[in-house]
Amino acid sequence: MKKVCILYDTVSGSTAEIAEILKDELSLRSCSVTIMSIAKNCDLDDFDIVIIGSPLRFGGFTSRIRKFIRKNRDKLRAKPLFIYITLLYLTRIDNNSPFEMQCYIDPSLEVTSFVKNEASSMDVSHSLAYYHNKMAHHLQGIHPLGIAFLNGRLIIEKLPLLTRLFMKIVIRLTTKEKEGDFINPSAVKEWAIEISSYIH
Ligand SMILES: Cc1cc2nc3c(=O)[nH]c(=O)nc-3n(C[C@H](O)[C@H](O)[C@H](O)COP(=O)(O)O)c2cc1C
User: Fold this and answer.
1) 167 CA to middle of ligand 1, Å?
2) 7-30: pLDDT as tens digits
3) How far is CA 155 from the centre of its chain?
4) How far apart are the CA of 198 and the centre of ligand 1, in A?
5) What is the pLDDT of residues 83-129, one digit of tens each?
6) 153-154/180-181 β-pairing
7) Are 180 and 153 in contact (CB under 8 A)?
8) What is the number of the ligand 1 atom nearest to the C-alpha of 88?
9) How far is 104 from 7, CA to CA, in rounded Å?
10) Would you give the DSSP letter of residue 138?
11) Domains defined for the chain, CATH in brackets
């Protein structure tokens, strides 16, 4: 039985909730799954496979996830690694997918494609290419086997005051990032099946 660790960061709870759905699905498929908050000390040596879940923050990982990646770079290079990102808005520019690894996109994100010169700066800063560049910068030398973009949740009142004000402005500027709960369990389950087909 493979030992899987799901490490997550969360503010509004969706990345944590997705970890539970992944755990249930992977447990049905001969995996022993431990879920851990990124705030806790985790020794990756105890596990065969690592799954990291991060809410998207301005197109990249949260600061706690970035710090964890920095601290555990060598171990993460040596382990089968999967990453999931919870987010609210995803575009493609010129239909590009810059990811070299397997990339799963939650259908409920309803990705919109743009031709480069017709995309607004908001659309560009929510594109697969933009997210890829930010994440690649932090992953340097770490090669996940797969990455999933999963619909998340935004609960404004759970955010710190300044972030709350900032997000209210963002919501006014883009109709795509909005408050609400958009978790799509069937997409999470579908990705769990993809993961298990890699590891068995
Ligand atoms: C400060 C901030 C920045 C965010 N940046 C993005 C972003 O660049 N793209 C996006 O689609 N969603 C963005 N989001 C939305 C979150 O990624 C989404 O709500 C996520 O599901 C939250 O995860 P959690 O419920 O585990 O906290 C942002 C949210 C906050 C509060």
Assistant:
1) 9
2) 999 999 999 999 999 999 999 999
3) 17
4) 28
5) 999 999 999 988 777 777 789 999 999 998 999 888 888 889 999 99
6) antiparallel
7) yes
8) 11
9) 19
10) H
11) 2-199 (3.40.50.360)
Record the tokens describing residue 184, joined without a space: 């799509």
How far away, in angstroms, is 101 Cα from ligand 1 center?
Answer: 23
Q: Which two tokens stand for residue 28?
A: 């049905």
Structure tokens belonging to residue 5 = 């660790």
- Give pTM, 2 decimals: 0.95
Residue found under tokens 């909730």: 17
For ligand 1, pick from 21, 87, 153 the residue to mutate: most ligand atoms within 8 Å of CB.
Answer: 87
Contact between residue 39 and residue 68 where contact means Cβ atoms under 8 Å apart? no
Placement of tokens 């709870």 in the chain: 13
Residue nearest to atom 19 of ligand 1 (CA): 154
